[in-house]
Amino acid sequence: MNVLVTGATGYIGGRLVPRLLEDGHRVRVLVRDRRRIEGRAWAGAVEVAEGDLADPGTLPRAFHGVEGAYYLVHSMYDTRDFARRDRALAINFAEAAAGVPRVVYLGGLLPHAADVSEHLRSRAEVGQILRERANATELRAGPIIGSGSASFEMVRYLTERIPAMIAPRWILNDVQPVAVRDVLSYLLLALERAPGGVVEIGADRLTFRDMMQGYAGVRGLRRAIVPVPVLAPRLASLWVGFVTPIPNRLATPLVMGVVHPVVADTERARALFPEVEPIPYAQAVELALERVAEQEVPTRWSGALGSQPSYQLQDWEGTLREVRSVHVDAPPEAVFRTFSGLGGERGWLVWNWAWRLRGVMDRAVGGPGLRRGRRDPDRLLPGEALDFWRVEESDPPRLLRLRAEMRVPGKAWLEWVTYPEDGGTRLVQTAIFAPKGLSGFLYWYASFPAHKVIFSGMVAEVARRAEAGGGPSPPR
């Protein structure tokens, strides 16, 4: 079957594409920039259609000849206009997919309450648009549990880091998590069935406290969790953002999604997809931890850009640059391997305490800080998160460019370029900043003394380690 996947660079989409290929489907992915899929194992096996759901004129070619299409796009971040944007994107998709026999959308379970969170209402609205305007099956899932998923990471970090906690009363609400492998099974099977309307999926019914205690049980931890008669979802979101790698803008919709009981009526799922027997929550946790331990995490929650702007480096007037260059007695491959292995558990080679302090400061003002880490200790893919950076471009062994997502008064990049030179490599490291207003210029020049020390030390250490043949230091 000819299948189009939107959201192929996201957490679910990045895992669904290889499964579709394994099942023999011909897969086309819709991306705003084809570089977003470079480096993925399946990149050469798919057809790439460059386009933007926000621009209807770019969509007809992507949908030409398509027999099935997946809509895996939604704005999880807590921004002011996410609902309006999601509505517009869904309408554009539905109109372009009007003649497609099967459309599959992954949405979220809705609680039976009057004050449903705006994010859950928006996801339901998207599903309604797709069902009314296209031949859609809407799968509704609760917290998805798998290596790298936002829900799993939230439970994992809260449970690992806090041996005893007082928690708001909503942790006693029922929720219905589902393993990511079961979500993928439902998505694949939905492509083979006639449009089925709304289908709710899930496994065990647990409270959020049960989810944390269940994780603790798998890890052999003892945890005391005491609920108190307060709700305070906004305060809880800030706490999640402080304790876990998940930024406040994502923690807010995650927490608001469980302040009411959220359970599935799985009768239709059992009738339409009898092949799927959802695995228990504890088993899903065990599998996720195995993947993390084996460093086999194909996608992470932080890999998707969502509706955030994808800035491209340009030669703007007023762009400020710090360029450092050094000859390295090692081949470009060894040099690239060294600087592309930075971040995450390994740190940043020099002045790591200063990097950690900068991460704490960024978290304090609502940025991602350093806790997002990296998906894989040795390999970077365009578009994925690396601490408080985003991989804008990766072209081994020639180029790696990171774009800053920390809170700064402007836009910032850190770039490494290699050139063969006299039997070795010329390494050029450039820090780039496009200031916004006077505050941007003041920030840059105030930071220059620290940058001079840190970035000079970094390029020298990259060269030294590459020449030693050891690459970056092992994870701490």
Automatic annotation (TrEMBL):
One Pfam family it belongs to: DUF2867
Parts forming coiled coils: none
PANTHER family assigned to the protein according to its UniProt record, in alphabetical order: NADH DEHYDROGENASE [UBIQUINONE] 1 ALPHA SUBCOMPLEX SUBUNIT 9, MITOCHONDRIAL, NADH-UBIQUINONE OXIDOREDUCTASE 39 KDA SUBUNIT-RELATED
CDD domains cross-referenced by the UniProt entry: SRPBCC
Domain of life: Bacteria
GO molecular-function terms, A-Z: protein-containing complex binding
Name the UniProt record assigns to this protein: Nucleoside-diphosphate-sugar epimerase
Domain NmrA-like intervals: 3-108
Organism: uncultured Gemmatimonadota bacterium
InterPro entries per UniProt: ComplexI_NDUFA9_subunit, DUF2867, NAD(P)-bd_dom_sf, NmrA-like, START-like_dom_sf
